[in-house]
Fold this protein.
Amino acid sequence: MYNFTDMRQQCTELSNHSSRFHRQCSMEDDDGVVDDEAYSHWHLPSSLYEIASSASLESRITEVGLIIKRVMQTRAPYLIRDRKAHLQVNRQSEKKRNFQIYPMCMVGTELVNWLSQLSTEILNEMATPLTRLQVVGMWQVLLENGIINHVNNELQFVDKHIYYRWAMNEELDSFKTRDRSGNETTDLETQTNLNDLKSAIFFLSTVGPDALFRTILSKSSNERTAEELELVYDELLHVKALAHLSTMVKRELASIAFFEQHQHAGTVLFRQGDEGNCWYIILKGSVHVSVYGKGIVCTLREGDDFGKLALVNDAPRAATVTLREDKSQFLRVDKVDFNRILRDVEANTVRLKEHGQDVLVLEKIDKPYSLAVDPYCEELETSRQQFRYSVMAGLPEKIVEYLLETRIDAYEDNMTLDTFLEEFILTHSIYMPENILCNYLKNYYMQGSTVILARIDEFYILDDRGQKFAIKRRVVIFLAIWIRTIGQRFFLNPVSNSFVEELYCCVLEDSRQIPEMYSILEKMAYIRQLRENSMQILNRHSVVVLDCGVYSIKAPAPNPVLPFDTCNQIIHLPDTSSFTINIRLDKTSAEICELTKMKTHYGGTNVDLQLVEVRSSGERIIFSPTDISIPTMLSLNSRLYVAYGAEVNTLTPVVQQDGPVDSAHSQMLEYMSSVDIAQQLSIFHFQLFEATDEVELVTQVFGRDQFPSCIPSNLDLLIRRFNEVQHWSSTEILLAKSQSKRVALLKKFIKIATHAKENRDLLSFFAITLGLSNIAVSRIAYIWNRLPSKMRRQYAEFEGLLDPSRNHRAYRMLVRKMNTPIVPFVPLLLKDLTFTHEGNKTYFGGLVNFEKMEPQSD
C-alpha cells in the first residue's frame, strides 16, 4: 500500500546518497564558499519534506487583488465611478427624497458580470466555466481580506445593485513579500501579463468556495438557496467526523449547520456540567478536553467532533472544552436540529425483511425519480410524489435484485450512467465475486422475478409474456452496462467471459419463442461481437514492461498491461551473485523462488526459499508466497533477493543502491524547453493513467490477496512513475556541480511544474513540487535566495496546494475547477480510499454496508 510514510522512507535514499558528495558540491557556491547553516542542519532533518512557503495566503490574496484591480483599471475603467444613491427620509409624515454621492464605487452585479466574462476569456480550456455563485465567492475573498469594501461596511458580498469600492490605495499598490531570508522585496510589475492574470483568477476560484462556505453557514436555514446547499453538501463530504453518515443526513446538515469562529486560545466553549445544547465539528484548529480531577484528558483536532453524547443522552456536559489555538473554526449543530435529524433518519428508512431478518435497507432521498414505482416501498406514489431510494445495506443478491428491478427498465443507450449502477459494478467484487454474480444473473434470467408487490395497480400489471420479456431484457441491459463500465478487463476474467457466450445462447433460444426478443438478440449479438474484438486485442503476444527496473519502450501504454506480460528482473542471492530472469506478472512469489532454484540450483528440494526486497534505506520486505506482479511493486533503488529464512536478516543495502553519482539527464534539461519537457511528461502520464482502471484502485485498497484474479500492475506503474519524477527533480539539483547550475535547474523545474499544471498533469506537478520540497533541496538557502521573488511566490502557491488541512481541501478545489481529462494526484487518491475503507465496516449484521461503496467508486 502506497502512503506518504513510504514516500518519506524512499526519500532517505537521496539524503543518504547526498551526504557522500555533500562537501564536494552540495554546499558550495560559485566561489567555493560552503553554506554553513545548511551544512549544520543536513544530518538533523525533522522531516524529509519542508513546506516553507515564502508567501502567506493573505499576502497572495493581496497580490491577486492588486492584479484584478489593475486589470479592471485597464480593461473596464467605467466600472469605477461616482455613484448616486437615493435615500428616503421620513420627517413629520412627509417624504423627502435625498441623494448621496459615493465616489469611485462599483456595483455588485456589474462586478460579478465582469469577472465571469474575464474568467471565461482567460481560463478558456484550463478550467470549467464558473457559475455566478462561484464568482460571488471570489469577490467574497477580496471583501474578507480588505481588498474591497462595502460602502456601509457590510461583511457579505451580494450579487445585487449594492456599492463596493477598492480599499487599496495607490501608495499600497507596490505589493510586498519576503523571501526565505526575511528580506523585503517589491518587484511586482506594473504591467500585469497574461500568465499572472490567469494564475490570479485560477487562485481566486480555488479559495472562493471556502469563503462562500463560511458565508452560507452564517445565514439562517431559510435563507440558503438550493445552489448554496449543494455547495455546503459537497464540502461536508470531506469532513472526517461525518464520513460515516448517510447521504440524507449530510444533506440535512447542509441546511441546519452553522459556522462559528473564536479568535483567542483559552476560550472555553462549554464547561463540565453545562446543559448540552449543540454538537461541534472542528474545521480548523484544536481544543483541549479536560475533566475535573484529571486535567486534560485528550486533544481534538481538525476533523474531530465533540458534544454529541450530551445531546443523545440528554445529559449535562461530561467535560470542559477549551480552545488550544487562535482563530479556531467550527461547524455547530443545535440540539433541536440534531434531534429532528435523528427522527427523520428512522422515518425515511425502509427495511425489507424475510423471516424476520433485514435483507435490504433503503433510504428515501427527497429527489424526484422518473422510473417505475419502486416495488420495495410500502406505498405506491404518483410521479410528482415519488422519491428516490438509495441502498444503505443489504444482502448481495437482494442488492442485485433491487438494482435490476428499479434501475434498468428506463435505461437507454447513451444515457448518463446511474450512480447506483456504477457503484455496484465497480465494487461488487468486494462482496459478490464474478462467479456468484453471473450465476445469479443466469438464475434471474431463467426463473424470472422473485419480487412480490405489496399492492397491485392496473397501470403496472404486466401479462406473463411481458413480464418474462422485461426480466430477460434487464439481464442483457445490465450486462451491456457492466461491459461499458469496465471495458476490456471484463473479458480477462474467464467466468464473465464465458457468461457472455452462455447468455447469448439463451437469448437466441428465447427469440424463437418470444418475438419481442429480437431486439434483445441484436443487443446480445453486439455484445458478443465486442467480446470477439476484445479477445483479439487481449490475445496479443506478451511484451516486456520493465527491463531491469526501467520502463520498456515496448510496453503497451495506453493499452493496459496484461497478466501474461513480463519483466526482466535482476535476482540477487545472499552470496552477492545475481542473474536476470524474465518473469510473467501473474507469477507468484513462490513460483519465482522455484524458477530461481531451477536456474541456479540454489537450495534443496525440501527447503523453502523467500523472496525479499531490500530497500536502500535498509528496510526488508518479505513477500507472501501468493503475492503477484512483484517487479512492478518494487521501490526505486531496491534489490530483489531470493534467500533462506535464516539469511533474511543478513541482507543489507549495498553502495550501488545509494543512487547515481552523475546526472544522466543534464543535457536534456539544458537543451529542451520546459514547455516541451512538461508536454512529453503529460503525454506519457496520460497514457499510463488511461491504462489504469478503477477496479485496480479497489484491489489495492482492499488488499491484493482478496482479488487473486485482478492484478493492479498498471496502478503499480503509475505510482512508480510518480516516485521516479519526484526523486528525479531532487536528484538533478543535488548532483549539479555548481550553485549557479542548481539555481538554473530549480528555475527549470518550477517552470516544468507550472506547465504540467496547465496541461492538467497533476501527477508531474505534485511529484516535482514534493521533490523540490525534499529537505535535501529546501535547506540549500543559497539557491532559493537567488530565485526571483515572483517565482518564489509562484512556488509558495504550489506548496499551498499540498496543505493537508480540511482533508486536502486546497487540492480538491484545484481538481474541481479543472476541465477533464486530468491525471490526478494518485497517492492522495489512494489515501482517501484507504481512509474510507479503514474507517467504515464492509458488513453490518451480515449485510453489505453499501454506503461505504459510494466513495470507493468515485
In short: The longest helix spans residues 194-217. The chain has five domains: 58-85+99-172+191-212, 219-341, 355-372+380-537, 544-657, 661-824.
